[in-house]
């Protein structure tokens, strides 16, 4: 039997504390690091603070939740997102607009 998993997405202006009550019921939280809807935006640096706060809360409360980030992720900032606590990364424009997609993907993985 396949088990369904649930997730929650948070826009840049949503305070992370607003979702804490839902965390025991989800498996993944997507932190939007740009305003949804338009590719190619720059990562909003303050959203990484939201990732840090979420990761701290998850660890403190011994929850098993993946933290995904989406928006403006590229080789130059993926490590910052990882250090903040993200473990799933959505990368679009940085790959599609690169001169060498394979090399860019490899750089993101490293």
Overview of the structural elements:
This protein is an alpha/beta fold. It contains four helices and four strands, in the order ββαβαβαα. The protein has helices at residues 46-60, 78-84, 93-96, 101-109, and strands at 7-10, 28-32, 66-70, 88-90. It has a four-stranded parallel sheet with strand order 1-2-3-4, with helices on one face. The longest helix has 15 residues, at 46-60. The chain is globular. The protein starts with 6 loop residues before the first strand and ends with a helix.
What key attributes describe this structure?
single chain, 110 residues, alpha/beta, TIM Barrel, four-stranded parallel β-sheet, 32% helix, 15% strand, globular
Chain-averaged pLDDT: 95
CATH class: Alpha Beta
CATH topology: TIM Barrel
Distance between the termini: 35 Å
Please render the helix and strand layout as text.
Layout: E1 7-10, E2 28-32, H1 46-60, E3 66-70, H2 78-84, E4 88-90, H3 93-96, H4 101-109
Parallel strand pairs: 1-2, 2-3, 3-4
Helix pairs in contact: 1-2
């Amino acid at each position: 039997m396949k088990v369904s998993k649930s997730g929650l997405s948070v826009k840049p202006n949503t305070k992370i504390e607003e979702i804490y009550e839902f965390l025991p019921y989800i498996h993944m939280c997507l932190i939007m690091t740009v305003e949804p809807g338009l590719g190619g935006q720059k990562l909003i640096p303050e959203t990484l603070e939201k990732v840090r706060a979420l990761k701290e809360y998850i660890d403190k409360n011994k929850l098993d939740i993946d933290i995904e980030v989406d928006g403006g992720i590229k080789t130059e900032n993926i490590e910052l997102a990882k250090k903040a606590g993200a473990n799933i990364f959505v990368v679009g424009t940085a790959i599609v607009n690169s001169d060498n997609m394979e090399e860019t993907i490899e750089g993101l993985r490293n």
